[in-house]
Amino acid sequence: MTTKPPPGPRGLPVVGNTHQWARDPCDFRERCAEEYGRVVNYEIIGWDAYMLTDPDDVKRVLEDTDTFPKHDSSTDKLREIVGDGLLTSGGDLWERQREAIQPAFFLSHIENYAEIMVERTADTTDRWRDGGTVDLRDEMMRTTLEILVEAMFGEDIDLQARGIYDAVEAMQRPLKPQNQPVTFLAPDWAPVPFLRRANRARDHLDAQVYDVLDARRRADADRDDLLAMLLDADAEMDAEQIRDEMLTFLFAGHETTALTLTYVWDLLSRNPDAEARLHDELAEVVDGRPTIEDVFEFEYAEAVVKEAMRLYPPAHEIRREPAEAVTFGEYEVPEGSMVLLPTWVLHRDDRFWDDPETFRPERFLDGEGRADRPEYAFFPFGGGPRRCIGQQFAMVEAQLVLATMAREWTLDRNYGDLELSAAVTLQPKGDVPVTTERR
Ligand code: HEM
């Protein structure tokens, strides 16, 4: 077969398509997919990007990590923040670490965290007032961070006193939508305030992790948190490696779940029928506080979480860098370019989803033609060897937080549609005020 370069939108000299993309990355990618089809070539922030819109091509890329390793220069920036943990490492180091850490995320272990998930959520709702207003995203962020830190280090860490909450926030700031162009384009010597704060926050978190590690090595207590699992892992990890893995979890392990919950609540608030059906299930399954056994019985609550991730995937695109020149059908993609797997686009593709813009959790229940859908029409947690290690943790957590909150509270968001902004994760633009109403 003769091959050719893939089509794509015409860009401007120097900036390429950055200006079209920056206006609304999700809309830009959807329009490109519609107009150009299977492979679309465009240029953003100096990167030669090839977006794939066929789920079988997505599968091929995610499952072949030798030909399609992570995109180097995107990962470099992240590495400056979180070091060489699972998210950013490659090759032998990644393989060893993944194998050593994987057991900590088996469902049998996640069950141990269910109580923490429910209790920290109850702490959040204890602060709410009937008829009060809170910021939805902030509440979900705080809750999921408290859960994660306790799951990682045990219950004796005071987030506030140790300045962990503020430091994690500062560490994530360079990758916020409005800061991303500066983060990626500013030279290392440039005195950018949020980059300096992020570096200081990283040093602070480093010190905190080492401090906990020291205390743990001295105490020799019998524990089953994540840190204990890393210390016990067969592969000997030095303190620096453990620190990098811990920073990676702090970075990767709470914001995405918090965003999922933000979108779940936003969608429920706009879809009273779905909310009523969720309450029917909660009334039937949950007796008192939700438990891990309840999660195993949930069907609709799980479908609600999945449908929210379909419409608003927190990881809205995945990037890889081909190690050699490759072809997809008749299209050539060069070595060293950026292959983009557009989760957002495939999750809203009407070839695989009826009425894709509509929130309808029922589509994830049995008997709704799920078998006809290609595997990679839905991939909020990625796939292949580098699939999200926290997938089950996040799914259990999202359902337990939702069930604990929804049993007693309704969160009402009468403020129009959410405006979104697509940086490394898909974020609401600005505040997300909700009224907390006791049921
Ligand atoms: C709804 C919540 C979450 C979403 C949507 C999500 C999404 C993702 C995605 C798409 C990837 C793959 C990235 C790629 O292939 O380039 C990933 C990887 C990863 N996630 Fe998650 N994640 C979530 C929750 C979590 C949690 C709770 C943790 C840890 C406690 C976690 C830790 C990680 C790590 C360490 C990796 C790197 C895995 C590797 O490369 O071996 N994530 N996540």
TrEMBL record:
Keywords from the UniProt entry = Heme, Iron, Metal-binding, Monooxygenase, Oxidoreductase
- Signal peptide residues on this chain, from the entry's feature table: none
Which PROSITE patterns does the entry link to? Answer: CYTOCHROME_P450
| One Pfam family it belongs to | p450
Q: SUPFAM superfamilies given for it?
A: Cytochrome P450
- What GO MF annotations does this protein's record show? heme binding; iron ion binding; monooxygenase activity; oxidoreductase activity, acting on paired donors, with incorporation or reduction of molecular oxygen
> Which family does the record assign?
Belongs to the cytochrome P450 family.
Q: Which PANTHER family match?
A: BIFUNCTIONAL ALBAFLAVENONE MONOOXYGENASE_TERPENE SYNTHASE, CYTOCHROME P450 FAMILY 4
Protein name (database record): Cytochrome P450
